[in-house]
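How it folds:
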Amino acid sequence: MAKTRARKPDFVCTECGHEVVKWVGRCPECQTWGTITERGTPSGFAPRATALAPSTPAQPITEITARGASHYPTGIGELDRVLGGGIVPGAAILLSGEPGVGKSTLLIETASRVAATGATVLYVSGEESVHQVRMRAERTNSLQPTLYLASETDLGTVLGHIEEINPALLILDSVQTVAAAEVDALAGQPSQVREVSSAVIRAAKQRNMPAILVGHVTKDGNVAGPRLLEHLVDVVAHVDGDRQTALRFVRTLKNRYGATDEVGCFEMQGEGMREVADPSALFVSERETPVAGSAITIALEGRRALPVEIQALVVPTAAPNARRVVNGVDQSRVAMLLAVLERRCGIVLADHDVYVSTVGGVKLVEPSADLAIAAALASAKSNKPLAPKHAIVGEVSLVGEIRRVAAERQRFNEAARLGFTNHIGPDAGTVRQALARATGA
């Protein structure tokens, strides 16, 4: 019998599993750097899996109840809204966000609210000591006798704490700081993150214990570590916010137990993260008389409609190249709207410096704010304020038409609830007609 020749060791990407014949610095499949590792394959034929008797027989789906997978509230309404009603027992939740955005503050308050119901909560911090976590908990008034703190970076010790305390909720801050002694790699490496997350999630599923894992982000805003981490967990939530403002948004990118289009709104304060159930007033300036260059639009954050004020300032300039400064809106869309105003409405701003900004630090990326930006620019150019109590919503096309936007009825219903009695949208006709109606000309 001929001897079976052993195949030479090959290389595999730890991120996507793509195989290459030689080592390269960047994976040709997923374009990730530093994930190609050597993998030796055994000689001869690959072993075949054998069938085993299942410990639990399969059941018809109609005979399985969902009582064990029901949500229970955390005590923070905005967080429950994002999670689909609360935390599901045995669920693995990955919470990511930039440094300093408020992840740890939100989680210590969540742990305190759950512990206030009498449940045992284990908060494991791999970045801070228990004394530092205690200081934050004292500042946010989150001290509870059933909230246990531990500062550990070893996976075996973390699992030992789980065995000893048997918590009803586990919070691990963060998964990139914990390492398994069996894995020959530094903490935060893809192999370590994969082993730590798999062990913690396995313990959560076996004990029917929900676990919240904090994940670091890269400079691109993605969760650091292998993509497998996002596949293993049940919920992927992201905390977003601007360093210059106190407003924080919590969004879900993946949710096996609810919708992914909900948004939780918080405000960072000295005492912690305060819920903002109705954030409408945060994005609209309060003034008695209208001023030129201001327009109100209704933006959609998840399922929540929010009024946002857009302000524009137009200043004549003698420079050969006029300035275009925007904040909170897309600069390319503002340039397009300036071209539409000049071509379709006769409003020439080529010899003017243009400044466009939103109030409250909110960022608008949807095209529904086009008409409001155009109205604010036209009002600033003519130095005439828009008619009061007007909510302007619509996408502007290059031919000067107003296109319809998603959830238009919901936007105008929210505007009516807030006291905006006049609505300007796609029914107004062209951009020229809409601007004439907004300015009262």
